[in-house]
Write a structure and sequence with these properties.
The strands form two sheets. Strands 3-2-1-4-5-6-7 form a seven-stranded parallel sheet, with helices on both faces. The protein has a six-stranded parallel sheet with strand order 10-9-8-11-12-13, sandwiched between helices. By secondary structure, the chain is α/β, with parallel strands linked by helices. The chain is built from 16 helices and 13 strands. Helix 5 packs across helix 6 (116-123), helix 10 packs across helix 14 and helix 12 (339-348) crosses helix 15. It has two domains: 2-230 and 415-433, Glycogen Phosphorylase B (Rossmann fold), CATH 3.40.50; 244-412, Rossmann fold (3-Layer(aba) Sandwich).
């Protein structure tokens, strides 16, 4: 079948699609990745068909990234100032990818592609949706941490609190989807369900591309939801090797503590890496700082986010490294709580110190803390002495590592890519038989 896989977001949102597309191609299907054009250089070397999808993502626009990751207004900013202003362009691009040069047999859509369900409705093409974290379901029975209201999380087990939190989220966001409703009116469609909470989920198949170590089914999840396990992919255009200097560093010493902010929060790092380096020096730890690539690709610039202070030989700085190759060789990982980074930590069985930004990250952080595999430190509290104190305790206590290893055993027993592809093929077959 010809299947169009589409979403808008960071590498954490896109990498699972790449993993599924590669497996679908291996099975003899024709996957098409409809993504923002910034991902083209990562996709085409893999031999996958690529179709550009607006909006354009400018990785050098750190101001926008900082606004989107603001804990109070980040989600609203991302929708109102980034996604919704080009909703019609997104719709036109995806419609083109779904119907030319040949009509797709199936669509797989991520929740940030608000034009996707509309394209499916207009064309009649069957579709499945996917989410990457339990946060996306806003369950009343497993209530998430709402980034603007973190104190509510302390009372989430009180009777009725989950329903109250869900009602609050819907009330606060009630005016946000108006651009989606407006586009539907222009196309002669009824208003439809709430795009932020309901319409993003396919009525036929919702793939929860995360591990049961992160979350389990709840009574109010959408029908036809299937937990598959994580879908791992973190190669750079197919290359999974570590940088040579990082490989040499790892080979000549004790496992280090790795400090990373994923693929998006790294663009709004602030002084995270300078503070992290100071914390590592205080403890005399070997450390790896993954500071992110310079989005301008200017060879004259020094490494982005490199701490300004001189660093000892015990601290290695690199732009990027595949987590699947690095995390198993680490003692502990300090990160932002993105689900992709969290998944790789669980896969490697490594304890975590999480400094969450916004969106699903505070909720992922709490889940890891409850599991016993992580401690959490808020951004405002991320100071060298606090970080050093947390790291000292965590490294001295085997409990966090033991819980992380238990989670790793769960992850190892799952095959997210296979389960997702099996479910997509079964949905296609049901449509053929129907």
């Amino acid at each position: 079948m010809r299947i169009v896989l589409s979403n808008i977001g960071t590498f954490g949102d896109i990498n699972p699609l790449i993993a599924i597309a590669l497996e679908m191609k291996r099975r003899g299907h024709a996957p098409v990745l409809a993504l923002p054009n910034v991902y083209r250089p990562k996709i085409e070397p893999l031999g996958l068909e690529f179709r550009a999808l607006r909006p354009e993502i400018d990785p050098a626009n750190t101001k926008l990234v900082e606004m989107i990751y603001d804990v109070k207004k980040g989600t609203e900013t991302g929708l109102r100032e980034f996604l919704y202003p080009v909703l019609r362009e997104t719709y036109a691009d995806l419609l083109e990818a779904a119907t030319r040069p040949a009509r797709a047999d199936l669509l797989l859509l991520g929740e940030l592609n608000y034009a996707g369900p509309i394209v499916a409705e207009v064309t009649g093409i069957p579709w499945a949706s996917y989410v990457l974290a339990p946060f996306s379901f806003f369950s009343a029975f497993d209530p998430p941490v709402l980034p603007p209201y973190p104190k509510l999380a302390r009372a989430d087990k009180a009777p009725g609190m989950g329903r109250a939190m869900r009602r609050l989220a819907r009330f606060v966001t009630r005016k946000w989807p108006e651009p989606v409703y407006e586009l539907r009116r222009e196309l002669g469609l009824p208003k439809g369900k709430n795009p932020i909470f309901d319409a993003k989920h396919s009525p036929d198949l919702v793939l929860a591309l995360f591990s049961r170590a992160l979350g389990t089914e709840q009574r109010d999840w959408p029908e036809n939801t299937r937990i598959t396990g994580f879908c791992f992919y973190d190669a750079d255009a197919g290359n999974t090797a570590l940088p040579a200097h990082l490989e040499a560093f790892l080979a000549h010493g004790e496992p280090p503590v790795v400090f990373t902010l994923g693929s998006a929060a790294v663009l709004a790092a602030g002084d995270f890496y300078a503070q992290s380096a100071r914390a590592a020096e205080k403890l005399g730890l070997r450390a790896v700082l993954l500071v992110g690539a310079d989005p301008r690709n200017d060879p004259r610039n020094e490494l982005r986010n490199r701490p300004p202070q001189p660093l000892p030989d015990s601290i290695c700085v690199a732009e990027y490294a595949p987590y699947s190759g690095l995390f198993p060789r680490a003692a502990l990982v300090v990160h932002q709580g993105g689900v992709g980074t969290t998944a790789q930590c669980l896969r490697a069985g490594r304890p975590m110190l999480i400094m969450p930004y916004s969106h699903d990250q505070p909720d992922n952080a709490r889940r890891m803390r409850r599991m016993g595999a992580a401690r959490v430190l808020q951004r405002a509290q991320y100071k060298p002495w606090r970080v050093a104190r947390r790291l000292r305790k965590m490294l001295a206590d085997p409990g966090h590592a033991e819980q992380a290893q238990r989670a790793a055993a769960i992850v190892a027993g799952e095959n997210g890519v296979k389960a997702a592809c099996d479910a997509l093929e079964a949905l296609h077959q049901r449509r053929l038989d129907g």
